[in-house]
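Trying the structure run again after the queue cleared.
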Amino acid sequence: MTIRVSERNIETLREAGALVEALLSEPLADGRVRCNICQRRCRIEEGGVGYCRTKVNYLGTLYDTIYGVISSAAADPIEKKPVFHYKPGSFCYSVGTLGCNFRCVFCQNWEIAYADVVETAAERCRTGVTPEKLVRHAEANGCAGVAWTYNEPGIWLNYTLPSAQLCHENGLYTVYVTNGYATPEHLDTIGPFLDVYRVDIKSMDDRMYRELIKVPSMQGILGVIVRAKDKWKMHVECVTNVIPGWNDTEDNLSKTARWITENLGPKTPWHVTRFFPYGELSHVPPTPPETLFSAAKIGRECGLEFVYIGNMLTETGENTYCPECGNLALERSRYTTRIVGLNKEGRCSVDNEDLNIRL
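Done. Tokens:
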């Protein structure tokens, strides 16, 4: 039997506390194992690693290699995620690790998303950040919650699960900033301990997912988003980064907005954000402002009550207004939020309209 992974790196990860037996693994024939953490459901042969480069089949057992491995950490306004209708004005302790189950050709965090943890043994990362340490860091930084972000949290279940449990025990809210490619069983595992599901809907066209993201279809993502909202009562906000020539047509934007309205509800926030050239899309120009203004108009015409323009400075594009009376409820500028017209229940202070805001 030939083990392709480095014994030395495996031992380094073990000594750092990063190597733990993976959740949601399934033994198969001939020493292979299936990883059921994300919708790729990788079938990993002995000595091999999964697509995300963080799961390794070592001697017939599937191991996670990123437990307590932190590549990035910051105390961020929750609006930076972006999340606008949950604990507005609060700070969340944001952490990321290594690896991703997507290969977006325009990824701006590719240094961590494309990293091969087994090959590098998590070099240049902080290791040994237990859930207990994570909670202490959040509290020491004056944060009201914790967000798993920067890379895809859907590959980090072995760490996000006990961390989310401990966050709830200590009164901290929890956030996934996710591409939505977790499996239903992953979502059901962490569902009782996850408060916010901030999810990308990159397009309603599978072509973009196939060619730019290297995922065969986006249909499974939609089902998991509905599951987060309906089964686990998570607060859901959606983001579409509008890329010229790929997902910026009126038809695609209308399909996205209608799907959100019909499946998640008209009060679900939709963030349409400006694309900037990067990676293999460096030749694509930034999203024209008029495209974003048009996208916001399309969203409202399709029934969405809260559509926000992101990655571009506007006078009012990030403010929250009551859809019934027009009262300014929340005023935002560069991640600074001012509560203007809310009552203590998070409803409009003028007409008591439900704004889907959790204070």
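The two ends are 57 Å apart (CA to CA). Worth checking whether this holds up in the mutant runs.
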